[in-house]
Design brief:
Elements lengths: L2 H20 L2 H4 L12 H5 L7 E5 L2 E2 L3 E2 L6 H11 L3 E5 L9 H10 L4 E4 L5 H10 L3 E5 L5 H13 L3 E6 L14 E5 L11 H6 L9 E4 L5 H10 L3 E4 L1 H4 L4 H14 L4
Parallel strand pairs: 1-4, 1-10, 4-5, 5-6, 6-7, 7-8, 8-9, 9-10
Antiparallel strand pairs: 2-3
Length: 266
Protein backbone atom coordinates (compact mmCIF):
# COMPACT_ATOMS: atom_id res chain seq x y z
CA UNK A 1 0.00 0.00 0.00
CA UNK A 2 1.35 3.44 -0.91
CA UNK A 3 2.18 6.02 1.76
CA UNK A 4 -0.78 8.25 0.83
CA UNK A 5 -3.19 5.29 0.91
CA UNK A 6 -1.91 4.27 4.36
CA UNK A 7 -2.48 7.85 5.55
CA UNK A 8 -6.02 7.90 4.13
CA UNK A 9 -6.91 4.51 5.66
CA UNK A 10 -5.61 5.55 9.10
CA UNK A 11 -7.66 8.73 8.99
CA UNK A 12 -10.70 6.83 7.70
CA UNK A 13 -10.57 4.42 10.65
CA UNK A 14 -10.80 7.35 13.09
CA UNK A 15 -13.52 9.02 11.03
CA UNK A 16 -15.67 5.87 10.89
CA UNK A 17 -15.48 5.41 14.67
CA UNK A 18 -16.59 9.02 15.16
CA UNK A 19 -19.49 8.62 12.72
CA UNK A 20 -20.63 5.41 14.39
CA UNK A 21 -21.02 7.26 17.69
CA UNK A 22 -22.80 10.24 16.07
CA UNK A 23 -25.03 8.28 13.66
CA UNK A 24 -25.62 4.70 14.87
CA UNK A 25 -26.61 2.07 12.27
CA UNK A 26 -30.20 2.00 13.56
CA UNK A 27 -30.49 5.70 12.79
CA UNK A 28 -29.11 5.21 9.27
CA UNK A 29 -31.65 2.46 8.64
CA UNK A 30 -34.50 4.94 9.11
CA UNK A 31 -33.50 6.65 5.86
CA UNK A 32 -36.15 6.57 3.10
CA UNK A 33 -33.53 4.95 0.85
CA UNK A 34 -33.72 1.72 2.86
CA UNK A 35 -37.17 1.25 1.31
CA UNK A 36 -36.02 2.23 -2.19
CA UNK A 37 -34.72 -0.28 -4.74
CA UNK A 38 -31.33 0.90 -6.07
CA UNK A 39 -30.74 1.28 -9.81
CA UNK A 40 -28.39 -1.17 -11.52
CA UNK A 41 -25.09 0.43 -12.53
CA UNK A 42 -24.29 -2.64 -14.64
CA UNK A 43 -27.50 -2.30 -16.66
CA UNK A 44 -26.95 1.41 -17.27
CA UNK A 45 -23.36 0.80 -18.44
CA UNK A 46 -24.62 -1.76 -20.95
CA UNK A 47 -27.40 0.46 -22.37
CA UNK A 48 -26.91 1.14 -26.09
CA UNK A 49 -28.56 4.57 -25.90
CA UNK A 50 -25.98 5.83 -23.37
CA UNK A 51 -22.20 6.30 -23.49
CA UNK A 52 -20.85 4.16 -20.65
CA UNK A 53 -19.38 7.29 -19.07
CA UNK A 54 -19.50 7.49 -15.27
CA UNK A 55 -19.14 11.25 -14.75
CA UNK A 56 -17.49 12.15 -11.47
CA UNK A 57 -17.96 15.09 -9.14
CA UNK A 58 -14.62 15.68 -7.40
CA UNK A 59 -13.33 18.94 -5.92
CA UNK A 60 -9.72 17.95 -5.26
CA UNK A 61 -7.33 15.00 -5.00
CA UNK A 62 -4.06 14.13 -3.23
CA UNK A 63 -2.21 14.01 -6.57
CA UNK A 64 -3.57 17.27 -8.08
CA UNK A 65 -4.58 19.33 -5.06
CA UNK A 66 -7.56 21.65 -5.74
CA UNK A 67 -9.23 20.80 -9.07
CA UNK A 68 -12.45 22.80 -8.74
CA UNK A 69 -13.68 24.22 -5.44
CA UNK A 70 -16.47 26.28 -7.02
CA UNK A 71 -18.62 23.86 -9.01
CA UNK A 72 -22.02 23.12 -7.48
CA UNK A 73 -23.36 19.57 -7.27
CA UNK A 74 -26.87 20.18 -8.61
CA UNK A 75 -26.16 21.91 -11.96
CA UNK A 76 -23.01 19.85 -12.59
CA UNK A 77 -24.61 16.44 -12.04
CA UNK A 78 -27.83 17.39 -13.87
CA UNK A 79 -25.68 18.64 -16.77
CA UNK A 80 -23.67 15.41 -16.81
CA UNK A 81 -26.82 13.32 -17.14
CA UNK A 82 -28.46 15.61 -19.70
CA UNK A 83 -25.27 15.31 -21.80
CA UNK A 84 -25.69 11.53 -22.00
CA UNK A 85 -23.55 10.12 -19.17
CA UNK A 86 -24.62 6.67 -17.95
CA UNK A 87 -24.08 7.26 -14.23
CA UNK A 88 -22.58 9.53 -11.59
CA UNK A 89 -19.66 9.05 -9.23
CA UNK A 90 -19.67 11.23 -6.12
CA UNK A 91 -16.63 11.61 -3.87
CA UNK A 92 -17.70 11.68 -0.22
CA UNK A 93 -14.24 11.86 1.40
CA UNK A 94 -13.80 15.31 2.94
CA UNK A 95 -10.17 15.49 4.10
CA UNK A 96 -8.42 14.39 0.89
CA UNK A 97 -11.01 15.03 -1.83
CA UNK A 98 -13.12 17.91 -0.47
CA UNK A 99 -16.30 15.87 -0.79
CA UNK A 100 -19.12 15.16 1.66
CA UNK A 101 -22.09 12.89 2.23
CA UNK A 102 -24.23 15.93 1.51
CA UNK A 103 -22.86 16.01 -2.06
CA UNK A 104 -24.28 12.54 -2.64
CA UNK A 105 -27.62 13.43 -1.01
CA UNK A 106 -27.95 16.44 -3.36
CA UNK A 107 -27.00 14.40 -6.43
CA UNK A 108 -29.57 11.77 -5.45
CA UNK A 109 -32.30 14.36 -4.98
CA UNK A 110 -31.92 15.76 -8.50
CA UNK A 111 -30.98 12.72 -10.62
CA UNK A 112 -32.66 9.47 -11.62
CA UNK A 113 -29.59 7.42 -12.54
CA UNK A 114 -27.16 5.06 -10.80
CA UNK A 115 -24.90 6.86 -8.32
CA UNK A 116 -21.58 5.37 -7.21
CA UNK A 117 -20.39 6.36 -3.76
CA UNK A 118 -16.66 6.94 -4.25
CA UNK A 119 -15.15 6.41 -0.82
CA UNK A 120 -12.40 4.51 0.97
CA UNK A 121 -14.57 1.74 2.39
CA UNK A 122 -12.91 -0.21 5.19
CA UNK A 123 -15.87 -0.97 7.48
CA UNK A 124 -19.37 -2.48 6.95
CA UNK A 125 -20.78 0.68 8.57
CA UNK A 126 -19.82 2.70 5.47
CA UNK A 127 -21.83 0.33 3.24
CA UNK A 128 -24.96 0.83 5.36
CA UNK A 129 -24.20 4.56 5.32
CA UNK A 130 -23.96 4.49 1.49
CA UNK A 131 -27.42 2.91 1.30
CA UNK A 132 -28.83 5.55 3.68
CA UNK A 133 -27.47 8.34 1.44
CA UNK A 134 -29.17 6.94 -1.65
CA UNK A 135 -26.15 5.33 -3.37
CA UNK A 136 -26.80 2.54 -5.89
CA UNK A 137 -23.23 1.21 -5.94
CA UNK A 138 -20.09 1.40 -3.84
CA UNK A 139 -16.40 1.39 -4.64
CA UNK A 140 -14.15 -1.24 -3.06
CA UNK A 141 -10.41 -0.68 -3.48
CA UNK A 142 -8.57 -4.02 -3.69
CA UNK A 143 -5.24 -2.62 -2.50
CA UNK A 144 -6.65 -1.67 0.94
CA UNK A 145 -8.79 -4.78 1.54
CA UNK A 146 -8.17 -8.52 1.87
CA UNK A 147 -9.85 -11.02 -0.45
CA UNK A 148 -12.03 -12.21 2.47
CA UNK A 149 -13.12 -8.66 3.34
CA UNK A 150 -14.01 -7.99 -0.31
CA UNK A 151 -16.17 -11.16 -0.30
CA UNK A 152 -17.93 -10.06 2.91
CA UNK A 153 -18.46 -6.46 1.76
CA UNK A 154 -19.77 -7.61 -1.64
CA UNK A 155 -22.24 -9.93 0.07
CA UNK A 156 -23.48 -7.15 2.37
CA UNK A 157 -23.86 -4.73 -0.57
CA UNK A 158 -25.81 -7.35 -2.48
CA UNK A 159 -28.14 -7.91 0.50
CA UNK A 160 -28.82 -4.14 0.51
CA UNK A 161 -29.50 -4.20 -3.26
CA UNK A 162 -26.35 -2.26 -4.16
CA UNK A 163 -23.68 -3.22 -6.70
CA UNK A 164 -19.91 -3.15 -6.24
CA UNK A 165 -17.25 -1.57 -8.43
CA UNK A 166 -14.06 -3.39 -7.42
CA UNK A 167 -11.02 -1.29 -8.25
CA UNK A 168 -7.79 -3.07 -9.23
CA UNK A 169 -4.43 -1.48 -9.97
CA UNK A 170 -2.15 -4.36 -10.94
CA UNK A 171 -1.81 -8.10 -11.60
CA UNK A 172 -1.27 -8.92 -7.90
CA UNK A 173 -4.85 -7.91 -7.08
CA UNK A 174 -6.69 -10.04 -9.65
CA UNK A 175 -6.93 -12.99 -7.22
CA UNK A 176 -9.06 -10.77 -4.95
CA UNK A 177 -12.01 -10.72 -7.41
CA UNK A 178 -14.87 -12.29 -5.39
CA UNK A 179 -17.08 -15.18 -6.44
CA UNK A 180 -20.13 -12.89 -6.41
CA UNK A 181 -20.88 -10.72 -9.42
CA UNK A 182 -19.01 -7.39 -9.33
CA UNK A 183 -18.15 -4.66 -11.82
CA UNK A 184 -14.38 -4.62 -12.28
CA UNK A 185 -12.62 -1.26 -12.48
CA UNK A 186 -9.04 -0.85 -13.65
CA UNK A 187 -7.46 2.31 -12.25
CA UNK A 188 -4.85 3.65 -14.66
CA UNK A 189 -3.30 5.73 -11.88
CA UNK A 190 -0.33 4.15 -10.14
CA UNK A 191 -1.06 4.84 -6.47
CA UNK A 192 2.63 4.65 -5.54
CA UNK A 193 3.99 7.13 -8.09
CA UNK A 194 0.64 8.90 -8.81
CA UNK A 195 1.41 8.70 -12.55
CA UNK A 196 -1.34 7.74 -15.01
CA UNK A 197 -1.06 5.36 -17.96
CA UNK A 198 -4.13 4.18 -19.90
CA UNK A 199 -2.08 1.20 -21.15
CA UNK A 200 -2.76 -0.37 -17.71
CA UNK A 201 -6.38 -0.98 -18.79
CA UNK A 202 -5.29 -2.71 -22.01
CA UNK A 203 -2.58 -4.75 -20.26
CA UNK A 204 -4.84 -6.15 -17.53
CA UNK A 205 -7.92 -6.77 -19.69
CA UNK A 206 -7.01 -10.31 -20.90
CA UNK A 207 -6.54 -11.40 -17.27
CA UNK A 208 -10.05 -10.37 -16.18
CA UNK A 209 -13.15 -12.61 -16.19
CA UNK A 210 -14.62 -12.43 -19.71
CA UNK A 211 -18.23 -12.14 -18.49
CA UNK A 212 -17.62 -9.23 -16.07
CA UNK A 213 -18.74 -5.67 -16.78
CA UNK A 214 -15.50 -3.68 -16.95
CA UNK A 215 -14.72 -0.02 -16.26
CA UNK A 216 -11.54 1.90 -17.14
CA UNK A 217 -10.70 4.66 -14.64
CA UNK A 218 -8.37 7.70 -14.67
CA UNK A 219 -6.44 9.36 -17.46
CA UNK A 220 -9.29 9.20 -19.99
CA UNK A 221 -9.59 12.55 -21.77
CA UNK A 222 -10.50 11.92 -25.41
CA UNK A 223 -13.23 10.30 -27.48
CA UNK A 224 -10.54 8.33 -29.34
CA UNK A 225 -9.31 6.76 -26.08
CA UNK A 226 -12.88 5.79 -25.11
CA UNK A 227 -13.39 4.20 -28.54
CA UNK A 228 -10.17 2.18 -28.24
CA UNK A 229 -11.14 0.98 -24.75
CA UNK A 230 -14.67 0.13 -25.93
CA UNK A 231 -13.36 -1.89 -28.87
CA UNK A 232 -10.98 -3.73 -26.52
CA UNK A 233 -13.89 -4.79 -24.29
CA UNK A 234 -14.56 -2.06 -21.71
CA UNK A 235 -18.16 -1.10 -20.95
CA UNK A 236 -17.62 1.88 -18.65
CA UNK A 237 -15.31 4.88 -18.42
CA UNK A 238 -14.95 6.77 -15.15
CA UNK A 239 -14.00 10.38 -15.88
CA UNK A 240 -13.58 13.08 -13.25
CA UNK A 241 -10.54 15.32 -13.52
CA UNK A 242 -10.94 15.93 -17.26
CA UNK A 243 -14.41 17.38 -16.58
CA UNK A 244 -13.85 19.00 -13.19
CA UNK A 245 -10.83 21.08 -14.27
CA UNK A 246 -13.21 23.18 -16.39
CA UNK A 247 -15.24 26.07 -14.95
CA UNK A 248 -18.42 24.27 -16.04
CA UNK A 249 -17.64 20.53 -15.87
CA UNK A 250 -20.98 19.54 -17.43
CA UNK A 251 -20.09 21.44 -20.64
CA UNK A 252 -16.77 19.58 -20.86
CA UNK A 253 -18.74 16.36 -20.48
CA UNK A 254 -21.16 17.40 -23.23
CA UNK A 255 -18.28 18.28 -25.58
CA UNK A 256 -16.59 14.89 -25.07
CA UNK A 257 -19.87 12.98 -25.58
CA UNK A 258 -20.60 14.93 -28.79
CA UNK A 259 -17.12 14.02 -30.07
CA UNK A 260 -17.72 10.41 -29.09
CA UNK A 261 -21.00 10.28 -31.01
CA UNK A 262 -19.32 11.71 -34.10
CA UNK A 263 -16.78 8.91 -34.14
CA UNK A 264 -18.46 6.17 -36.15
CA UNK A 265 -15.70 3.63 -35.43
CA UNK A 266 -17.05 3.19 -31.89
Amino acid sequence: MSHILEQIVRHKQQEVEERKSLYPEKLLQRSIYFETKPLSLQKYLLRNDLTGIIAEFKRRSPSKGVINDYAAVEPTTLGYMQSGASALSILTDQKYFGGSNEDLVIARKFNFCPILRKEFIIDPYQIIEAKSLGADAILLIASILTKETIEDFTKLSSELGMEVLLELHDDDEIHKIPSENVIIGINNRNLKSMTTDVETSFRLLPKLPAEAVKVAESGINSAETICSLKRAGYNGFLIGEHFMQHTRPNLACKKLINQLRRLESC
